[in-house]
């Protein structure tokens, strides 16, 4: 029996009434327990989590450099799994204690991992990064600053290989979009901050404005029932996108859609503490969700791995057009003591292979995705493919910059 099977048997009321310190002591868990081509063009990436309106338009701008360190063991847990029935339950009770404020403040960095080189025997990996910092008021208005830090070698070993290659400021990689030629990864100093840009309720993910978030149920089963009515194109891959409620999905596709929305509720969405706590408990109730051991997230923070029972042909998220030719698994990294989601990461399950036709480009010429152009073409199962790390997720009374 895994940790969350035991968790599911515990009464939700207990989590609501019992102090988290008492709960942790009772279930024997502590955070510190052992456990011929056109000229190359610069590459501009897109965030995985949903953005719309003015926020999405801002993604084309440059931004401030943010230093992000990357562990070399992205797919590995560092210690033995914690004891049964605890991680998400403890996270929920601690999330419930967080105070409200005038603004929901978030700062996140997302990265996609690219292989630079011509062969599996001679390449290094680069973490290609971007991010956002947002302040969202309870009325849905606020501001956002777009971040575009310099890309960095993924590990110290990759840094040595990059320096041995002459430490290029612009690293050339094949164009993963299906066009001929190459693109550049910016290994320089990064751009200055872009913004602040104003935001409005129209920028809310999945249409969940602060007003709607405040009305969501705070009991996990009722919250799930409400979220099942959200409409969207929820499939990891579909030849013809169709908007439908999550309720129409079955099996892994339903778990995938609910986990996407849950990730947003636990990170960028200005959800009240009780709704955030219910989201943790709802996630615990999903079939196949498993708690693993302790690990380090992309910002160097220690948390607990939560694995989702999913394998997809593309990394999960908003931009799930057929961009990849491999399969991927998703993990969350949670800090139970703080009741926060630290990061989301996609790991390679099967490296890309083969090809897939694409519609013609602007020049009218046929295009195709080729495994030889994919960012993770030299990866092995378990390697990090992409991530999003949430450096700040908190309510605050500090006003956004103008």
Give an account of the 3D structure.
The protein is α+β, with helices and mostly antiparallel strands and 402 residues long. The chain has ten helices and 17 strands. The chain has helices spanning 3-9, 12-17, 20-26, 53-57, 87-95, 156-164, 210-214, 220-227, 251-265, 273-284, and strands at 41-42, 103-119, 122-137, 142-147, 152-153, 170-174, 182-186, 194-199, 231-232, 244-245, 290-296, 302-307, 327-335, 340-350, 355-358, 367-370, 384-396. Strand 3 and strand 4 (142-147) form a beta hairpin. Mean pLDDT is 79; it is low at 1-42 and 44-85.
Q: Descriptors for this entry?
A:
single chain, 402 residues, alpha+beta, ten-stranded antiparallel β-sheet, three-stranded mixed β-sheet, 17 strands, disordered N terminus
What's the count of strands? 17
State the order of secondary-structure elements, H for helix, E for strand.
HHHEHHEEEEHEEEHHEEHHEEEEEEE
The residue fraction in helices comes out at 10-25%
Total of DSSP H or I helical runs spanning 4+ residues: 10
CA-CA gap between termini: 52 Å
Low-pLDDT regions? 1-42, 44-85
Please report which band the strand proportion falls in: under 5%, 5-15%, 15-25%, 25-35%, 35-45% or over 45%. 25-35%
Radius of gyration: 21 Å
Major β-sheet profile: 10 strands, antiparallel
Q: Secondary-structure map with pairings?
A:
Blueprint: H1 3-9, H2 12-17, H3 20-26, E1 41-42, H4 53-57, H5 87-95, E2 103-119, E3 122-137, E4 142-147, E5 152-153, H6 156-164, E6 170-174, E7 182-186, E8 194-199, H7 210-214, H8 220-227, E9 231-232, E10 244-245, H9 251-265, H10 273-284, E11 290-296, E12 302-307, E13 327-335, E14 340-350, E15 355-358, E16 367-370, E17 384-396
Parallel strand pairs: 1-7
Antiparallel strand pairs: 2-3, 2-17, 3-4, 3-5, 4-8, 6-7, 9-10, 11-12, 12-13, 13-14, 14-17, 15-16
Helix pairs in contact: 5-10, 8-10, 9-10
